């Protein structure tokens, strides 16, 4: 039987009978049980009367019939729906004659609806539901108890209690709830869980009084912020505060925690804000009490989402900078939109640093963060020989705009600017310290219906190796999207050739400066600025197909460059040479013009070789993609493009002249002298194989395998050049073998020979040496990755599927894996094949050949670089992993920066180890700390060495 029971906590009024004699006045709380099986609604009562039957009514006019001998009050069947009242007699098991004739009842129109009564009762009365197994009542010997079995729920005000078993005493208004013991497994199921508002309490037993709103609880567990509160004997008061004796506070979520604070007494206050206060407490680790490690009292406030407070520092020691205190400071909150943290570092030998980190957010508009740091870094003591001091700073700013805030307009920023040595002295790890390149951009863009685009940018880049910086302030770009002026909107028939004409335009203005850090603020710094403006007009011509297979695309280009500075040549008698003087930034407005025409042709040629459908290798397909382009450029080395001829007489009285361009050396290049008619040739190759798919069970499935992604050969020829008409020959190749081994290569050849001084001459290398091409540089790179998913189900990684344990995976190796030399006694290895792992290998090689002529001797300089890198990760257990990365420089014959790290999750604690064994960043770090953020600063031990001490 399942149902809902409603209980009134107000004393019942005496029910007058027909003769004016009241019913039993001792009935205090009467349960109203609504059955899902449409049984008659019964209200049990106690006591006796001189009358066996009488008729009264509930509030709202619902008539009831009192049977004093039966000890129950029954509602008439006609108060139920018609379908239920028809079945009432049969289902009730009582004589239908005992039900009073409906004609004797009060008019049903004057009665309140029973559903209305239910809705009113559910607000202020405890409502029981569920009881999937059964409901039992006991009204003997003056008792008023109801018993509920199987997934029971009771709701009262904002409190909801669920348990597998409940009993309710109507006389006292107390409900008792507990779980039930599974005799097969020996485990308790359906233990009580109480929810009040947003809080949830789990317990073994509870007695809750609906009249006083008090409760007595046994072994309750609740979550307090990041911690978990256990209580053995608990009292809940009407104000929802909780008194606890023999309690535990821990951050371990296990039912039997690994460690906890053993509290003698505690109180949890919920109003006006939640907080926990407890008395003397000591530490217990693995059930071992440590009485001398404890605190006299504790206070656990409710942690808000964001609140102003202290930031705990870390402590340590460095040989170079002394003892230190790092990251001590304050965190400030300013409303819902802004917060920032101010922290500082201090070292006993004089170094110090200040950091500011801020975040801001306006929903649906923008968000970002800002980080500033300034430090004075010094090694040694003042006056000592090894004393060194530097001042460093860093700025990081990130800003993004919500796409819906201003449609068509965006503003974003990504700034990373710092002093050259800031990463070395103020980095959070080895990877940050090794970072030499940094860049920034601040961008504003505006779009007008996709037709016009405006972009204003501020750009920055830096290299900490040589302390070089480059700024572009601003970079302004405006563009007009491609449009077809002759396109017919409502065309009839085929597209006409002139409809394919298109136009597009873009212009860019830049103001750029490049300098070294030591040159900042020096005299003449403003002369380092380079600025200019470029205009490009893109004219699209109709393309067509030649001989059905050759795609032909003609092109016309026109561009214009504007210059705001120029140079003039003069003769310096002291050096007997021509020098140039600049007029200064924005001292002039000059223009150059660049125009050319061209024609490009491309096609594809397919070749196929069939091996047979029944072979594993069924076919190989070769795709050749030749491309030929012709470009014609007339003579542009004229005065209107800035070319001048300077005539002078040297100190020996010889008249000379030199051609130069007044815009030379600026941001944009002026067109060079001479005509050009060039041809560029490129041949691309692709190889694929068709093989049988062994995974296909039908035996007819196939799949494609790439043998060669691309092999490109390119060169060119200038028909109008006076010498060295042929361009260098370039070969590029890339492929991937089985999706694991990536191969990339690049070769450059020169078709011309060199003279005795190492200079190129207008003579083919084939004629002079008999070798068609002369290699000038080459590069190659290989990358290989391996990984295993593993099947870790147990702590040892065995998975438990093969019946083996962890000890079975230890193997003794008697032969050296490289030299195959016998090892007496052998080496012990852990060789579990089920653990997840990954290995990444990369190899790079480069070669460049140059020539120098010294002491009447031609010297060939061969420059090689060759490195091997490796990184890997092994997940030994679900909680333990090892990561490593290293490399080897074959030319320097030494190891590159290597690092090994180890992490182990001990459920409540974590251990992490990092080690850099060699190099200028040689260091180590060992950390063990609690996983919970509430105790991570308190329960923490760290030991490390700094690369500053190297």
Shape: elongated
Computed CA radius of gyration, to the nearest angstrom:
44 Å
Give the CA-CA distance, first to last residue.
79 Å
Helix-residue proportion = under 10%
**Helix-strand category:** mainly beta
Largest sheet: 31 strands, antiparallel
Uncertain runs: 1-112, 117-123, 792-807
Average predicted local confidence, pLDDT: 78
Number of helices: 5
Q: How many strand segments? A: 63
Beta content comes to over 45%
Account of the 3D structure:
- With 950 residues, this protein is mainly beta.
- 4% of the residues lie in helices and 57% in strands.
- The strands form 8 sheets. The chain has a 31-stranded antiparallel β-sheet that branches.
- Strand 40 and strand 41 form a beta hairpin.
- The longest helix has 11 residues, at 82-92.
- The chain starts with a strand and ends in a 5-residue tail after the last strand.
- Residues 1-112, 117-123 and 792-807 have low confidence and may be disordered.
Topology:
Elements (H helix, E strand, L loop, with lengths): L2 E5 L23 E5 L6 E3 L8 E6 L3 E6 L4 E3 L7 H11 L21 H11 L2 E4 L3 E5 L6 E12 L2 E11 L4 E5 L1 E2 L6 E2 L3 E4 L2 E4 L2 E5 L4 E11 L2 E10 L5 E9 L8 E11 L5 E4 L2 E5 L2 E8 L2 E4 L7 E3 L2 E5 L3 E13 L3 E10 L4 E11 L3 E14 L8 E14 L7 E10 L3 H4 L4 H5 L2 E12 L3 E12 L4 E16 L18 E15 L12 E12 L3 E3 L3 E14 L3 E6 L4 E6 L7 E13 L2 E6 L6 E17 L9 E7 L5 E7 L14 E17 L9 E17 L10 E9 L3 E10 L1 E3 L5 E5 H5 L4 E15 L21 E6 L6 E9 L6 E18 L2 E21 L2 E10 L4 E2 L3 E7 L3 E8 L6 E8 L9 E6 L5
Antiparallel strand pairs: 1-2, 1-7, 3-6, 4-5, 5-6, 7-9, 8-9, 9-10, 10-11, 10-14, 11-16, 12-13, 14-15, 15-17, 16-17, 17-18, 18-19, 19-20, 20-21, 20-22, 21-24, 22-23, 25-27, 26-27, 27-28, 28-29, 29-30, 30-31, 31-32, 32-33, 33-34, 34-35, 35-36, 36-37, 37-39, 38-39, 39-42, 40-41, 42-44, 43-44, ...
């Amino acid at each position: 039987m399942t149902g809902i029971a409603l209980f009134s906590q107000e004393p019942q009024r005496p029910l007058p009978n027909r003769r004016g004699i009241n019913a039993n006045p001792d009935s205090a709380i009467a349960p109203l049980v609504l059955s899902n099986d449409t049984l008659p609604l019964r209200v049990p009562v106690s006591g006796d009367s001189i009358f066996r039957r009488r008729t009264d009514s509930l509030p709202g006019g619902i008539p009831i019939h009192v049977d004093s001998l039966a000890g129950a009050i029954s509602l008439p069947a006609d108060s139920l729906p018609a379908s239920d009242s028809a079945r009432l007699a049969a289902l009730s098991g009582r004589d239908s004659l005992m039900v009073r004739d409906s004609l004797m009842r009060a008019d049903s129109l004057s009665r309140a609806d029973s559903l209305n009564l239910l809705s009113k009762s559910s607000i202020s009365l405890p409502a029981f539901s569920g009881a999937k197994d059964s409901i039992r009542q006991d009204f003997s010997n003056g008792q008023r108890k109801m018993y509920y079995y199987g997934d029971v729920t009771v709701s009262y005000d904002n409190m909801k209690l669920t348990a597998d078993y409940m009993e309710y005493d109507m006389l006292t208004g107390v409900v008792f709830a507990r779980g039930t013991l599974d005799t097969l497994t020996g485990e308790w199921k359906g233990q009580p869980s109480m929810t009040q508002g947003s809080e949830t309490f789990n317990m073994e037993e509870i007695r809750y009084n609906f009249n006083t709103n008090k409760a007595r609880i046994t072994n309750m567990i609740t979550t307090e912020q990041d911690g978990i509160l256990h209580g053995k004997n608990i009292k809940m008061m009407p104000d929802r505060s909780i008194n606890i004796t023999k309690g535990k506070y821990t951050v371990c979520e296990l039912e039997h925690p690994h460690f906890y604070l053993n509290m003698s007494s505690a109180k949890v206050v919920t109003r006006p804000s939640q907080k926990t206060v407890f008395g003397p407490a000591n530490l217990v680790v693995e059930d071992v009490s440590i009485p001398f490690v404890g605190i006299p009292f504790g206070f656990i406030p409710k942690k808000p989402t964001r609140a102003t407070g202290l930031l705990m520092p870390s402590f340590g020691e460095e040989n170079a900078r002394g003892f230190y205190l790092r990251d001590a400071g304050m965190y400030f909150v300013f409303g819902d939109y802004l917060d920032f943290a101010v922290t500082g570092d201090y070292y006993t030998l004089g170094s110090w640093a200040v950091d500011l980190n801020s975040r801001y957010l306006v929903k649906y508009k923008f968000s970002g963060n800002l980080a500033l740091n300034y430090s004075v870094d010094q090694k040694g003591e003042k006056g000592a020989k090894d004393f060194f001091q530097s001042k460093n700073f860093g700025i990081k700013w990130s800003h993004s705009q919500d796409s819906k805030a201003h449609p068509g307009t965006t503003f974003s920023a990504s700034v990373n600017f710092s002093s050259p040595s800031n990463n070395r002295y103020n980095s959070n790890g080895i990877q940050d310290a090794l970072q030499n390149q940094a860049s920034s951009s601040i961008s504003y863009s505006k779009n007008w219906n996709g037709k016009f685009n405006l972009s204003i940018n501020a750009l920055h880049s830096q290299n900490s190796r040589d302390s070089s910086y480059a700024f572009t302030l601003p970079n302004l770009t405006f563009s007009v999207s491609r449009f077809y002026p002759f396109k017919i909107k409502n065309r009839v028939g085929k597209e006409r050739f002139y409809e394919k004409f298109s136009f597009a335009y873009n212009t860019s203005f830049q103001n750029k400066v490049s300098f070294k850090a030591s040159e900042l603020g020096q005299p003449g710094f403003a002369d380092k600025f380079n600025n200019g403006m470029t205009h490009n007009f893109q004219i699209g011509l109709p393309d067509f197909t030649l001989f059905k297979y050759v795609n032909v695309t003609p092109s016309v280009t026109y561009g214009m460059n504007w210059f705001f500075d120029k140079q003039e040549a003069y003769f310096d008698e002291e050096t007997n040479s021509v020098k140039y003087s600049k007029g200064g930034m924005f001292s002039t407005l000059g223009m150059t013009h660049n125009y050319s025409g061209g024609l490009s042709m491309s096609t594809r040629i397919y070749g196929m070789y069939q091996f047979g459908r029944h072979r594993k290798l069924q076919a190989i397909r070769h795709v050749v993609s030749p491309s030929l382009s012709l470009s014609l450029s007339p003579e542009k080395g004229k005065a209107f493009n800035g070319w001048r001829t300077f005539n002078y007489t040297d100190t020996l009285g010889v008249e000379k002249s030199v051609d130069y361009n007044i815009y030379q050396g600026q941001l944009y290049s002026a067109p060079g002298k001479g005509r050009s008619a060039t041809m560029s040739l490129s041949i691309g190759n692709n190889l694929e194989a068709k093989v049988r798919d062994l995974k296909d069970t039908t035996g007819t499935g196939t799949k494609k395998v790439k043998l060669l992604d691309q092999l490109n050969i390119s060169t060119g020829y200038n028909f109008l050049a006076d010498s060295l008409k042929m361009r260098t020959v370039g070969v590029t190749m890339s492929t991937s073998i089985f999706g694991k081994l990536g191969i990339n290569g690049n070769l450059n050849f020169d078709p011309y020979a060199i003279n005795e001084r190492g200079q190129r001459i207008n003579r083919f290398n084939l004629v002079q040496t008999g070798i068609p091409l002369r290699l000038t540089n080459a590069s190659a790179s290989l990358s290989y990755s391996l990984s295993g998913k593993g099947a870790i189900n147990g702590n040892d990684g065995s998975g438990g599927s093969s019946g083996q344990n962890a000890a079975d995976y230890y193997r003794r190796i008697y032969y050296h894996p490289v030299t195959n030399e016998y090892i007496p006694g052998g080496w012990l290895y852990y060789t579990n094949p089920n653990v997840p792992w990954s290995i990444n290998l990369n190899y790079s090689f480069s070669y460049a050949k140059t020539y120098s002529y010294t002491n009447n001797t031609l010297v060939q300089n061969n420059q090689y670089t060759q490195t091997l890198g490796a990184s890997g990760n092994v997940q030994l257990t679900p909680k333990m992993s090892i990561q490593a990365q290293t490399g080897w420089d074959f030319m320097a014959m030494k190891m590159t920066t290597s690092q090994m790290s180890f992490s182990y999750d001990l459920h409540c604690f974590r251990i992490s180890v990092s080690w850099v064994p060699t190099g200028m960043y040689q260091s180590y770090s060992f950390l063990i700390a609690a996983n919970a953020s509430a105790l991570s600063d308190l329960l923490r031990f760290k030991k490390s060495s700094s690369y500053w001490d190297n």
